[in-house]
TrEMBL record:
Protein name according to UniProt: Ig-like domain-containing protein
Residue ranges of domain Ig-like in the record: 260-352
Origin organism lineage: Eukaryota, Metazoa, Ecdysozoa, Arthropoda, Hexapoda
Keyword Secreted recorded: no
Gene Ontology annotations for the cellular component aspect, listed alphabetically: cell periphery
Amino acid sequence: MAVATLLMLAAALALAAPDWTDCQTPCICKWSSGKKTALCRNAGFTSLPESLDTEMQVLNLSGNSISKLGKDAFKKVGLVNLQRIYMRGTGLRDVHRDAFRELIILVEVDLSDNKITNLQSNTFFGNERLRILCLNRNPLRKLGQAQFPTLPHLRTLELEGCLLESVHRNSFIHLVALESLNLKSNKLNNLSETAFMNFAHLKSLALDGNPWKCDCDLRGFRDWFLASNLRSVSLICKEPEHLMDVPWEDVPSDQFACPPQVTVTPYPLVQAEAGGNVSFGCHVTGDPEPEVTWLYEDRPINHTWLVLEAEEGLLDKWANISVFNVSDADAGVYTCVAKNSLAAISSNVTLVLPEVVTATTLSKSESRLLWWILVCIGGALVFSVMCTVMTVCCLKNKSRRKRRNLKASVSFTDQEKKLLDVSIATTTDRGTGSCEALAPDLDIMDPPVHITIESEPLPLAVYPPPPEFSTSVLPAGAYGNILISVSVSRDPSIDASRCPDLLDLTHRAKPVYHGMATLPRRPRAVPQYDNMGPRVTAGGSSTLSLPGSAAELPPPPPPPPPSCTPLTPEFVSL
């Protein structure tokens, strides 16, 4: 009775406990191949589901959008009993090196068709039971040294279509149990056989679909691969051009060759002194071993030159040449030629001798004198230019002053010109003189007469004198009001009637003046001039021919009569 009660209680508790098959929607949890499996494909997850049973052994998250696996990603959601993880096509980019830590019973991981560009070298460290690792179609591009940690049970490694360009010779050094390696459809053109020497159990190696360069660098791997019986599909050469699309097995091993590489030192020009020695070095690499020769001007060198060969290896060596007692006959082009079964490559070096050039040089004193001469010539040129400039400036300034000081001309009548000419020409000593040419109708008088012309400068507004009164006839500034001074003898015995009336004013009274008499000038308050200046007639009239009415001008005062009394010289102002 008691036993039956216990069984019933256990059944009730079992029914009350949650079932692992009741997993988070839309996942489906069920038994598959004897494993507790959670199928969460294309469920829209962006991170790992957190409500799955910790006893889950298989997790399939393919087709979701999980771009990152952080540190201890599976441990944090309690999935430490996983044996298989499938995450194909989830857009995964970043995988932490400790994302799979403590999954000690993990045997298979499939991360194919994602965007992983860098796989850290210690990723999957501690997953020692891992047997299958699939990384197909991730843009990894290269595998570095010791790319994978120690995985003693890893049997299959898939790296197809990963855009691999290089694989380090020690990338798989810790995968000693590897049986199948897939490197198809990458960008590999070369591999080293050393990368596969520790695979004692390797049974399949897929390498087709790569652009192989069939040269000396691939020869060792080619020979190992064909001898290993691992090939299932023929591998095809893509380079060099003459071997394109030819299967490896159809190309002899020695045709997997590298053309020689030639480097000449010194390069490309060597200058040597006549009578000296010179050496050229030629560094050559190539596979198969290249044959090295030296040429001079495209001809084999003769026995007078010494050729030294210092071999460092069959595929890497030096071939040196020395020329002793260099002369003009040794100058020219030297060529190092390296040839093997694939190609012949050459490189040139030119030997030249310095030319002897004779040139006339100046002594130190001569050079200094030449410099002084050049300095003096330059100074003279500068001085002449400055003088020319100053002269031109002075001439320009003088021309401006002349134009500024130039005065307009004044015209005179014929009688005025005759009167002025006579008065200039009839200057005599006191006591003796002549009144000739004073006027055509005047009698010549015995008493000496001295007639001079004085002037009073006019304001700047007055018109300048005519050409007859230029500075060549009269002193500078001798224009304006003209003063004629008449000197007569003071002898009382001289008849005064013999003195001419210069003004010929017979119609007016002739008062007697004792001493000096001066005709009054025209009032200066309202000076008026025409374009000919004040006009004086031969008859003694001072009436001006001016535009405007006669009422505007005051009547002229009566002139004084001539006097020949013994007085001081009289001045008559016109």
